[in-house]
Amino acid sequence: MTAADLDLPLIASGKVRELYDLDDRLLLVASDRISTYDVVHPNGIPDKGKVLTGISVFWFDKTAHIIPNHYISATDGVPDKVRGRAMVVKKLTMLPVECVVRGYITGSGWKDYQATGRVSGIQLPPGLRESEKLPAPIFTPSTKADEGHDEPIDLERAAEILGDRELAGRLRDVSIALYSHAAGLAAERGVILADTKFEFGIDEADPARPLVLGDEVLTPDSSRYWPVEGYEPGHGQPSFDKQYVRDWASSTGWDKAPPAPEIPADVVAGTRARYVEAYELITGEPFDGWLSRTSA
Predict the structure, then answer these.
(1) Is the peptide bond before 286 cis (omega within 30 degrees of 0)?
(2) Residue 60 lies in a domain
(3) What does the alpha-carbon distance between residue 25 and residue 28 come to, in Å, rounded to a whole number?
(4) How many CB atoms lie within 10 A of CB 237?
(5) Which end of the chain is more exposed for a tag (fewer CB within 10 A), N or C?
(6) Residue 158: inside a domain
(7) Domain-embedded: residue 290
(8) pLDDT tens digits, residue range 150-176?
């Protein structure tokens, strides 16, 4: 999907999404592109964009009582050719901090813990094992990098970037509330939400300038989901995300520099199956249900 495919002004294009202008609203389109090590592969994963959009819509509905979100519709105002993988959303002034919440010690948090006993300045109990559940969820924000990788920061640095200590504290509290609510619902469906990231903005069109949840939310691309079945601390866990592609990419000898290699058909099929399985487990409905509701 490129700007030429929709007769709308293109505002931004990222590794996975395009953002189009709808005057007082925006159209957020999720493509089937997939990247590893920040490089986009030449072929994508069929239906990945629809899975990401469907899961976001599900979670926007399930978390609206905690904080308002930018979601308006996945049908009204959505062009036919991007139905199922696009949302009409509110325009927000996005905040320059990524709000990461960790309920389990894994990934970069595990590496930091091994080195220092801390994650984002937060002291954790000694003796934790990889993938172990933390005593309580922790807020570990990061910068938003225009290029390269986001950098982990502590709450104090987040407050400096935002220029508002009270806002930083509110982001922490709301992020943890969102994570805790979602983790509870996911657990009922046999899925562990290990960690996730949120993005927030300010609705300047509202005189009250409320804080609003934006971007995608609680998808396999922005979160680490593990199956409850077979979960065992002490090592890494299988996940419902692009780890399958990442594992393949790391086995090819590719040096992680552009251009990325083409993904083999069997890896594409396996990755698609994992994304669809994530949708069905998390939402509790067949993926076809989302496709039929959003079909033109």
Answers:
(1) no
(2) no
(3) 10
(4) 19
(5) C
(6) yes
(7) no
(8) 789 999 999 999 999 999 999 999 999
Count the neighbouring beta carbons within 10 Å of the beta carbon of residue 182: 22
Residue 233 · residue 132 · CB < 8 Å? yes
- What integer is the mean pLDDT of 181-189? 97
pLDDT of residue 145: 73
To the question of pTM greater than 0.90 for the whole model, the response is yes
Alpha-carbon gap, residue 199 to 208, rounded angstroms: 19
Q: Please name the amino acid found at residue 141.
A: P
| Chain mean pLDDT for the chain | 94
Number of structural domains in the chain: 1
pLDDT at residue 83 tops 80: yes
d(CA 76, CA 105): 41
Burial class (CB in 10 A: 0-12, 13-18, 19+), 62: middle
The 3-class SS string of the chain reads CCHHHCCCCEEEECCCEEEEEECCEEEEEECCCCEECCEECCCCCCCHHHHHHHHHHHHHHHHCCCCCECEEECCCCCCHHHCCCEEEEECCEECCEEEEEEEECCHHHHHHHHHHCEECCEECCCCCCCCCEEEEEEECCEECCCCCCCCECCHHHHHHHHCCHHHHHHHHHHHHHHHHHHHHHHHHCCEEEEEEEEEEEECCCCCCCCEEEECCCCCCCCEEEEECCCCCCCCCCCCCCCHHHHHHHHHCCCCCCCCCCCCCHHHHHHHHHHHHHHHHHHHCCCHHHHHHHHCC
- Separation of alpha carbons 187 and 100, rounded Å: 19
Rounded Cα–Cα distance for residues 251 and 136 (Å): 36
Q: Contact 261/249 with Cβ under 8 angstroms?
A: yes
Which whole number is the average pLDDT over 66-90?
97
Domain that holds residue 149: 93-227
The CATH number that applies at residue 159 is 3.30.470.20
Q: Cβ of 279: how many Cβ atoms within 10 Å? A: 25
CA 248/CA 39 separation, integer angstroms: 14
